[in-house]
């Protein structure tokens, strides 16, 4: 398949993915919106509802990216991008759809498998972008860095929701203790992934999610300040993640991913 056809398939699959996501958000797949299901299986690391506005940023970047790849399909960099990441992008779209549909039908445990495959696929895309970097290209690394980061933390929350659905007792350990452990472990895992993909945008949506977690823990409509230690961990985690992003940016010589000299 040539670059032009790949670019069109990217655009079509993204459009289908956006439609399915919209249907899921409006509760038109199984009569329940994503938020309603998330509220049903609420966890101590569920971010505030406003945090999910990041999806508009992610999908705006994706729309711009696939259009640019179509328009500039003959540009050497974007031609390499189309050849390297298109199939992976198609897989990510299919996994995105499968995740939305399974979650909409409250098959939370099954949705964990889809979102895990989803974030792994996006991580591989980020690695592929490292291999084709030309000069200081930023659009695709920024788009997929933010996309991967958000799905990374969404994966953590999704797994926690599955445990809530199963009514797991946490071996008798307090749920707040588990939540603290999860937030700390997530940062360690993020650093390990960052060492592989070297994308300075990757920690940013995770930092945003930690701020959302802090907000919901503090808010009257959330947990109303009941978990002070967890609030502190979420806030400190947010700051730490921002610092990690800055450090990676400096290591990349102020580029989203490492600069490649022409």
List the helices and strands and how they pair.
Blueprint: H1 3-25, H2 34-40, H3 54-71, H4 76-104, H5 108-132, H6 139-165, H7 175-197, H8 203-218, H9 228-251
Structure report:
Helix content is 73%, strand content 0%. With 262 residues, the protein is mostly helical. It has one domain (3-251). It is globular and about 55 Å long. 41% of the residues are buried. The mean pLDDT is 95. The chain crosses the membrane at residues 7-32, 52-70, 82-101, 107-126, 138-164, 176-195, 200-217, 229-250.
Total strand segments: 0
Return the string of H and E elements: HHHHHHHHH
Shape: globular
Q: Overall mean pLDDT score?
A: 95
Helix/strand class? mainly alpha
Give the low-pLDDT segments.
Answer: none
Q: Give the % helix.
A: over 70%
Biggest sheet overview? none
């Amino acid at each position: 398949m040539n670059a032009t056809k790949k670019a069109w398939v990217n655009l079509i699959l993204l459009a289908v993915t956006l439609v399915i996501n919209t249907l899921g958000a409006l509760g038109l797949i199984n009569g329940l919106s994503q938020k309603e299901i998330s509220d049903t299986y609420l966890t101590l690391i569920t971010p505030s509802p406003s945090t999910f506005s990041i999806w508009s940023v992610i999908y705006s970047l994706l729309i711009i990216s696939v259009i640019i790849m179509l328009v500039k399909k003959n540009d050497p960099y974007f031609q390499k991008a189309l050849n390297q990441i298109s199939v992976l992008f198609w897989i990510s779209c299919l996994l995105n759809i499968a995740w939305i549909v399974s979650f909409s039908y409250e098959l939370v445990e099954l949705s964990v498998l889809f979102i895990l495959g989803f974030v792994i696929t996006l991580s591989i895309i980020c690695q592929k972008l490292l291999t084709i970097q030309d000069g200081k290209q930023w659009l695709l690394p920024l788009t997929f860095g933010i996309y991967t980061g958000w799905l990374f933390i969404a994966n953590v929350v999704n797994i926690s929701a599955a445990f809530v659905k199963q009514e797991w007792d946490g071996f008798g350990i307090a749920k707040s203790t588990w939540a603290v452990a999860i937030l700390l472990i997530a940062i360690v895992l993020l650093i390990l992934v960052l060492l592989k993909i070297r994308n300075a945008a990757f920690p940013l949506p995770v930092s945003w999610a930690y701020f959302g977690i802090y907000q919901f823990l503090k808010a009257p409509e959330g947990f109303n300040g009941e978990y002070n230690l967890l609030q502190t961990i979420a806030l400190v985690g947010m700051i730490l993640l921002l610092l990690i992003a800055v450090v990676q940016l400096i290591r990349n010589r102020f580029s989203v991913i490492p600069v490649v000299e022409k």
